[in-house]
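Lecture 7 notes: from sequence to structure.

We start with a single chain of 519 residues. Read the sequence below before looking at the structure.
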Amino acid sequence: MRQYCGFYPETIIPDSYPHTARPSVLSSPWAALGQLLSCNLPHVYTTCFQVLRDKQVRGMDAVEIVPGDILLVRLGDIVPADIKILGEHAEDEEEAPMQIDQAALTGESLPVKKFSGDTAFSGSTVKQGERHAVVYATGVNTFFGRAAALIGSTNNVANIQKVMSKIGAMCLITIGIWVVIELGVQFGAYGHSCYTGEGRCPTVTNILVIIVGGIPIAMPTVLSVTLALGAYQLAKHGAIVARMSAVEEMAGMDILCSDKTGTLTLNKLSIDLSASFPMGGTDVNTLVKYGALSADVGSEEAIDVVLHNTYPDPDGLWKGYRRLKFIPFNPNDKFTMAVIEDERTGQVFRLMKGAPQVVLKRAYDFAEIHAPVEQKIIEYANRGYRALGFGIASGAGAADAPGTKWEFLGLLPLFDPPRHDTAETIERCLEKGISVKMVTGDQQLIGKETARQLGMGTNIHKIEVLLHAKAGTGLVEGHSNVDELVEGADGFAEVFPEHKFEIVRILQVGAIESSTYCC
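Now the structure, written as tokens:
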């Protein structure tokens, strides 16, 4: 906790804590804070930031931040507004990027790197780094706020409701025409007259018959029963129908826009062992074992967890081994290192994992092996994989201690695997004439690789292509307008909710579409 900013302790204590450990709201905020910290909570969150305004630095709550403020964001902070990261490194110094988790906006599980001049959006979380940033948008003017406003402003009318309205309008027009004909025939052709009293005005009776006969009274009931039967059939296949009209809309759709993470894929970081690249006589099983030993599961980092769980026997991994020391990842070194003791032989060795180029440069035989390893790294990048490099050295000490001889063990590719039934579902959609488009917040190469694995089209554009086309600054060759560009694409990558809304809006012009996104 950096400073008290006026939050109430009762609002941040989980219900799982025992009643005796829950602090009451005391008259003094400092007393309440002291009692709160005495609970020894593992995480205490605050919305307070150090803000530079009018040449003065002050502690300020997130709701008080306005455009133009310069604030300090660091590990664990939830970005309170749309900000632009300021440059603070020397020109001859390599910049250490921040890691920003944008899962609240894009649904992607892994954080993205942000350098000086890049923007971080409201609602994202700082996973690594500490920088000053200038605020340029707050509230509804933020990227997240505009997306929420767009969703709130939609007034979706079900397609079946439109059809019903057209049918009702046609019935009224038909009734009106026949009423005019009836009046013309009765009073014009036959010269009938109409008087008050029972049975003395047959024309009115005929008009009532036309009105009653022309209104399809049973149609709403028939439609409701039909849709209910459709919902029942879908429920038997595990589908949840939130709106009855969705049954008819799904039956009439011809384009399905789907998110990637958690919808087409498992949203679970995994290792593609079939694409692993062991080196120096190390086999895949040994590489996975060393990877698991190098992981610190207690930190709950996604990469460490997946390395540990990939080992065939994670429960028995540490039988015969003892970790003496662990050096966590930092943006300057770009690696982690674990000092391990083999209790059976007494041998002590160091395991390094991290950015493959960083681990590779420390290898004693770098000159002989760097070409094939760098080629494999490029191959992983082209397939949208994230590569991890591993190295081993005997003895304890620092990574660059004198006499250290690092051996490069190999590479392991990380990816988010598709769901087991996704490829079959997409194939069935294509057989029914439904085009499936991927709209993802992940990188373009990752989207293309996922599409390739699922049998989808790989003509996936970055969202900048659509934005430039809308701004009139350039269209992709072979497309004459924005509508044609969107309809011809197999998907878009690096999108945000606002972009998804726009893509679906363009597709819905003159057609019926359905879209589904993972929150």
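The chain has 16 helices and 21 strands. Keep this in mind for problem set 3.
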